[in-house]
Structures are given as structure tokens and as C-alpha cells.
Design a protein that fits this description.
About 5% of the residues lie in helices and about 60% in strands. By secondary structure, the chain is mainly β. The chain has one domain: Porin, CATH 2.40.160.
């Protein structure tokens, strides 16, 4: 067997060995020899503030190095290609707190390097600035995010003939506010998003135009909340959206501009810090400028539940139903239903184990295509000390589609080391 093949097998099995080693260590290392940490639901951070204190500012540098084995990097139905990907993720966060003002600045990147498929190497960058002003019964907050990221080969909106990932820039600006009276609380927010996609190269050397996906999206949300009793409040919410594409029509002679809304009635719970939940259901509509696409009218839902079963064990559950954008030929949009669950358990103060599952059902409207995708995974976090943490994970993905060529299976393992102050 060649050396590269041996290395891939080693990386594939390494997280499995780590799980076994961690379980063995947890049984022989006394917990009293470790630093005292918060429960599992608090991400195993030390009780004292981490970072470098600079007056009212807290500077938090961090860097994560990860090695991942992926046995199907292009999400292929047949002839899967495997590879080992190494990523380096530096991040710097600066936070400032005053009596009524809070400032958050962050900068980071992710550099990905493929052992064999070097054309798929990537350099993602993200910058964020956020601030909030607390005025007692009211507050104002705003944020701007700038990201340069990529869509990997194999994604639905990346042409199968592409020889490289699609690079894009994603800029989001948000402004929101809250106001409370004796009986009601009001929340509002406005967000604008700009997406720009670079062209890519096809196998035959020609240029693939991706500016069909360039667009501006806006979203406005209004919410009114009514306290019921201690830890419970009911609310009504409506969100309007507009999605305007640069190229009208696109390469397939379609007009993808649309507008729509989601209306929710919901309930928020916060029961003695043991169970927090946001449960809502309602109706949604997305209307398209192109008459060939028609409209999407259907029910919508949202659920987020976080349950601290014990001080050491936590459960999370989420579900949603929404309309997502796509440029798959003939499809107006994706009517998607997502549901997921996870459990984490702090086996020791310095060792956390977890399991998670996720299922997604996607209907590509105006076509017959329907994808059902599932993921199951295990993860481990081992806190070496207050500055270093080792993480391991194993994931298995499966997609079943009624469209030829869109099924796939994928197995991934990864191990990472995170250093932070």
C-alpha cells in the first residue's frame, strides 16, 4: 500500500482511537487533579474571564488546527474521491463593555489545504463589528459582517463541470431595537445582505459564469411579546423579505426576483435555567416575478429547545420549515424542512462527549426533484488545560434523491487542537 493510502487510513481511524483513549483516561485520572470548569452546557470554559484585559477591553486570541479525512469530497454518487484536508483557523476578538454600551470586534480566517486535490484549497476570511446601546426600557443594536467564503465542488449550485470551488463575498448589515412597556415588549430588526460570486473554470477550459447568483436580500422583522407568567411569554412575529438578482433574466431566461413573508405565533420558555425553548408556527408565502415559477404558499414552523437534564448532561432539539434560494435549473426555490437533535455529557470536568443527528427534506419547487439528507455524528472535547482543547468527531452523511446522479454517501473523521487565551 502506498504511503498516502496509509496516511488516509490513519487519519480516518484516529478519532476512533481518541474516543477509546479518552474513555480509558477518564477512568484512571482523578477528577480532583483537574481545573474546575463549568458544566457541559457552558462549553467547558474556565469560570474566570479568558483573554487579555486591556482596561475596559478584553482581547481574546485563538487558533485552531484541524486534520480531516473525507471519503467523498465532491459528494459523488459513483466514483467517490477521498482526501485529507488540513485547516488552520486563527481568530482575534476584542470586546469592550461600558455601563450602557457594548462593543464586539472580531476577525478570523480559515485556510484549507487538500493533500491531493490542491485545486480545492481555499482561504476564507470573516470580519465582524457589532455594538449595542442599553437605554433602560429600550435598546439599540447593530452589526456588520463581511465574509469571503467558498462553495465546494459538489454543492447543488456549483456546476458539475467546475474544476475549483466557487469563491463568493457575503456582506450583511443589521440594525435592530427593543422597547418595553408595562404590558408588552416590542422588537424590530432590519437586515440587508449582498452576495457576489466569482466566475470559475470548467474542465474544458471555458469560463463558468456564476453572476447569475449575485443578489441583494433584505429582511424586516416585527415582533410583539406578551409576558404570561414567570419564565413564559407569548409572541406574534412577521418577517418580510425581498430577493433581487443582478441579472434579469438569467442564463436560463428566468427572472428569479421574489418577495415574501413569514408570520408566526409562538411561545418562549425559560424555566429556572433548566429548559429554554422558542416554539412557533404559522404561514409563509414567496411570490416570484417570473410567472413560470408560480408562488410558494405553505405552513412554517420553528423550534429551538435546550434542556439541561442534569448539571452534566444537556439535550438540544431544533426544527424549521422555510423557503431557501437555489439556482438549480427549473427550480424556483427550495421548500426545506430541517430537524435535528443532540446530546452532550460531561464525563469528567475536562472531558465532554456528544452525539447528534440531523435530517433535511428539500423539495425543489417547479421540478420533481426531492432530496432527503441525513447526518449522524459523534464528538469529543478534551480540555488539556485552560488554554488548550482537543476535539475529535466522526460523521456519516447520506442523501437520497429522486433525481439521477444526486445520491451520495460520505464518511468524515477529524481531530483538532484549539489554543486560546
Amino acid at each position: 500500500m502506498q504511503a498516502s493510502g496509509i496516511s488516509k487510513i490513519c487519519f480516518r481511524l484516529l478519532p476512533v482511537f481518541m474516543f477509546c483513549a479518552a474513555l480509558l483516561l477518564s477512568s484512571i485520572i482523578p477528577a480532583t487533579a483537574q481545573v474546575s470548569y463549568k458544566p457541559a452546557n457552558d462549553t467547558m470554559r474556565p469560570k474566570d474571564d479568558a483573554g487579555i484585559r486591556l482596561g475596559r477591553f478584553l482581547l481574546s486570541p485563538a487558533i485552531t488546527s484541524r486534520v480531516q479525512y473525507d471519503d467523498n469530497i465532491f459528494l459523488s454518487e459513483d466514483g467517490a474521491t477521498s482526501d485529507v484536508i488540513t485547516t488552520v483557523t486563527p481568530r482575534l476578538t476584542l470586546q469592550g463593555d461600558w455601563r450602557v454600551f457594548h462593543l464586539h470586534l472580531a476577525a478570523g480566517s480559515e485556510l484549507g489545504f487538500f493533500a491531493d486535490s490542491t485545486d480545492d484549497d481555499y482561504q476564507d476570511i470573516d470580519l465582524k463589528a457589532a455594538a449595542s446601546l442599553d437605554l433602560g426600557s429600550s435598546s439599540i443594536e447593530g452589526a456588520i459582517d463581511w465574509n469571503q467564503s467558498h462553495d465546494a465542488r459538489g454543492d447543488n449550485d456549483v456546476p458539475s463541470s467546475a474544476t475549483e470551488p466557487v469563491i463568493y463575498r457575503d456582506v450583511i448589515g443589521q440594525l435592530g431595537g427593543r422597547y418595553a412597556t408595562n404590558d408588552l415588549r416590542y422588537e424590530t430588526s432590519f437586515a440587508i445582505r449582498r452576495l457576489e460570486f466569482d466566475d470559475s473554470t470548467a474542465i474544458d477550459g471555458s469560463t463558468i459564469r456564476n453572476d447569475d447568483r449575485d443578489r441583494i436580500e433584505t429582511r424586516e422583522t416585527l415582533r410583539a411579546l406578551l409576558p404570561l407568567d414567570l419564565g413564559r411569554e407569548a409572541y406574534g412575529e412577521i418577517t418580510f423579505n425581498q430577493r433581487q438578482y443582478d441579472r434579469v433574466p438569467d442564463d436560463t431566461e428566468r427572472i428569479r426576483d421574489s418577495s415574501g413573508f413569514q408570520a408566526f405565533g409562538g411561545l418562549r420558555l425559560d424555566l429556572t435555567d433548566l429548559i429554554t425553548a422558542d416554539l412557533a408556527a404559522g404561514w409563509m408565502n414567496q411570490s416570484y416575478a417570473d410567472p413560470a415559477f408560480g408562488n410558494i404558499n405553505d405552513y412554517t414552523l420553528r423550534a429551538d429547545i435546550d434542556w439541561s437534564v442534569t448539571r452534566l448532561t444537556g439535550l438540544k432539539f431544533s426544527a424549521s420549515r422555510a423557503v431557501r434560494e437555489t439556482t438549480v435549473t427549473g427550480a424556483s426555490g427550495i421548500l426545506a424542512f430541517d430537524i435535528g437533535a443532540g446530546i452532550s455529557h460531561e464525563l469528567r470536568r475536562w472531558l465532554q462527549l456528544g452525539a447528534r443527528a440531523h435530517y433535511s427534506d428539500e423539495e425543489f419547487r417547479q421540478t420533481t426533484r426531492r432530496d432527503r439528507t441525513s447526518r449522524i455524528g459523534l464528538n469529543m472535547a478534551y480540555q488539556l488545560n485552560r488554554y488548550a482543547q482537543i476535539n475529535g468527531a466522526i460523521n456519516h452523511d447520506l442523501r437520497l434523491s429522486n433525481s439521477d446522479g444526486n445520491d451520495y454517501r460520505r464518511f468524515q473523521t477529524q481531530i483538532s487542537l484549539k489554543l486560546e487565551m
